[in-house]
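Budget justification note: compute hours in this period were largely spent on complex prediction jobs such as the one shown. Inputs:
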Amino acid sequence: MKDNSNQPPSPAAFHILLALAEGDLHGYGIMQQIKHMTDGAFVLGPGTLYRSLKHMLEIGWITEAGDRIDPALDDERRRYYKLTTTGRKIAQTESERLAALVRLAHQRQLLGDLS
Amino acid sequence: MNHDLLTAIYRRLLWLYPARFRRDYGTQMVQTFRDCLRDAPTPGATMRLWWASLLDLFVNAGAERLRQMMNPTHLVGEFLFVAGLVSLLLSGVALFWTVWGITIFLLIPWDVGYPPPGTFAQAVNNFFETGYTSLSIPCIVILCNLTMMIRAMQRREHRPMVILWRFTGVNIVTSVIGTLIALFGAWIAALLYPVYDVWEGDQSRGVAYVYWGLIVTGGLIAFHVIRVINVLLSSKRKKVELLQR
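Corresponding output:
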């Protein structure tokens, strides 16, 4: 398989990385976290979510953190996912890249006041 | 709309995904979908979620299938799978050939005469007499060997019952398709050669064809049975290995 672990993450993957930067989450937890982070502007369906998770597991950005019950939901066991060191590094690199772009956009007066 | 019903439909639609993906993530996807349904505040929101999830499912199932197909290992598997289908198609033709031959030689009295030129019955005779089916014999043998390789590759992806089910399904479908193609070819041949009749005065050759047909069909059936047993045994061995680990 092609090694694309160093490629920039897709928007879905980047949002998942950001969500997992808070801590271990299960699938629905990730969806909720993303919805909360973006004020509902970015919504992932289960299909996109689990296909992204599968890809991210394969390239080592995340790892499974075991099955356990989420007391906030119900008694069902859920599989949790967590960031790996590589995943965290990818999220940092992408964040810095985007921050640099935002600064550039600001310098070119394409954005309002950032403060 | 009833959440249980929507969840059940969603679960069924997961069959659009490749087997492996479904096995690894199917349960989690259903669980997540159910969580989403539970948190939808109004019936309108539920329906919006339903349609969005359907679209999401179709798009991602297609993408995942495409991804699997583009995998170099899987490409070989796909090629072999097509080869397997062709072999089963040919076995359908061979089976039809045999049935037709038995009907002609055993059930129809010879003093009735041969099918009139240009008729469908004569077309079928012509088709099976012009050597296409003879050529199919080595093809069937070679391609059936390839199907063994396909199954060997797929053993990791499917449970034995799924393989058995697919094997049976594919066999039935290809036998029907093979028969239809054979009949269509015969019809075309009848249109092209309406007066061609190779049967006249040569009953022994016709009988020999029937025997050949029986041998080939019997061999194919035996081959498929062995193949299924082999797949089942290998899966069992694999399970034992996993348990030992």
